Amino acid sequence: MDMLTRIAALTADCIHSLWPETEGLPAAEELRGLLAVPPDPAMGDYAFPCFRLARPLRSAPPKIAEALRGAWGHEEVASVQAVNGYLNFFLNRAHFAAETMEALRAAGDRWGASDLGAGKTVCLDYSSINIAKRFHIGHLSTTMIGHSLKRIYDYLGYTTVGINHLGDWGTQFGKMICAYLRWGSRDQVEQGGVAALESLYVRFHQEAERDPSLEDEGRAWFKKIEDGDPKALEIFSWFKDITLKDAARVYDMLGVSFDSYAGESFYIDKMEPVIQELRDRGLLVQSEGAWVVDLSEDNMPPCLILKKDGTTIYATRDLTAAIYRQNTYHFDRCLYVVAYQQDLHFRQVFRVLEKMGYPWAKDCVHVSFGMVSFAGAALSTRKGNTVHLEDLLNQAIDKAKAIMAEKSPNLENRDEIARQVGIGAVIYTDLSNNRIKDIDFNWDRALNFDGESGPYVQYTHARACSVLRKAGTEVTSAAPDWSALTDDEAQALLRLMSRFPDVIREAAEKYEPSLITRAVTDIAQAFNKYYYEHRILDGDPAAAAARLALTDAARRVIRSGLFLIGIQAPERM
Prior knowledge:
21 helices, about 55% helix, Rossmann fold, 13 strands
């Protein structure tokens, strides 16, 4: 039992012993959620706000806090203070150090892992790149948020299904075929790859501004794709193969993989039963020649299912995909990691699923995030304004390599470590803030190796590894004296590490990887402060063994935290 849970249980026992006949008093589980960490350590290690007890006890919070303080008597806590309606706990430092270190050592590399999600399945729809377009930085957030959430849920014992819902359907592919047949050649595309396809796409829109009839030609080619025209399908399939080959390089750099690449085209032959079900339930109504589901009672525009020409739209395919995923994976939760601009779309889709009578519609969640711009400019493939993610990653690697050549010229395996550090810097930048915030990417910020950054946390891990390598047998064989960890710096580090399992669970509950980024950065900063204030390997062997064990615990927790946000942890830098 971790310290927070222990204090909550003891507080609950104290409350119920003082007021045994009172109804509506919180149980230990609720109390655990109410316990807070004071902003100033001088106010205690943990604080319980007694305001929750005011109504059932019909008493003022300061009086309740004073009563609890007088009744408290447990060795886990050195002292208790009642201050302005709060019960402030000051831990018994030696007891806290011993209990936390034993728990950390027992957990090994799995501190914070659990079987919380045993028997439950989470589907995660993320990245979802578009065919015939290069992987640009606009796809970084969805890719890394989704990848991190998948690792977090795996860590908590869930069965996860990572789905790359490829954008491989829609009128734009008719336009691509039109552009290719008018201005491209097979050799040009084979040699130029996705970049050549993008150039053709940009040219199509430039030409269409002068000749609007091209738009009709593009729509006609997409209709041929939907109708199964052999020539259209052959070209379309070729475009898809070229795109996935290009994207595979970037996914490999990021360490990202998927369990399914079932994109929009996968559901084309599965949509008709869904459309028919909508008809049978009386949900489809005609509107200006199109078929829609009326959502006016929900204060939303109608959800378009079939356009005037009979072609489908995103909503049709997302409805079909959701039903397929439930029937195939029996998910307990299905997450859609998509930018916040699609909020209305997902609210419409989820509401239509509810109206179709699917109770699991409530388990579908839109995990929204902010948009990415570059130096203040929005990204647009059709306008040719993109920053390719592979270029960003390679530049980050080159900068890391240059820094290491200057600071660590004799570092072994420097190229591989530069790759880990450069890519880690980009990922950290993306996952360091609340996911809903917009990100204005520029080279200087993305590749900043100072302060709160991926390289800083990675270097802290490497520093801890270095200390462990230097430890002699006299230290490593000694039994640790945990009372050597009662100083302020050790206690601050222990408190942060003891809370890390809660952070992981909260990140899963809120779909917020940045909570882990923040926590692992705080732990790295606390370890560095400890490192500068204390000579870890000197002095009494038992005390040195305790300090070394603390160093090893910090190393393991930092490594786990970096793993959960998709960053590697070099042992040397």
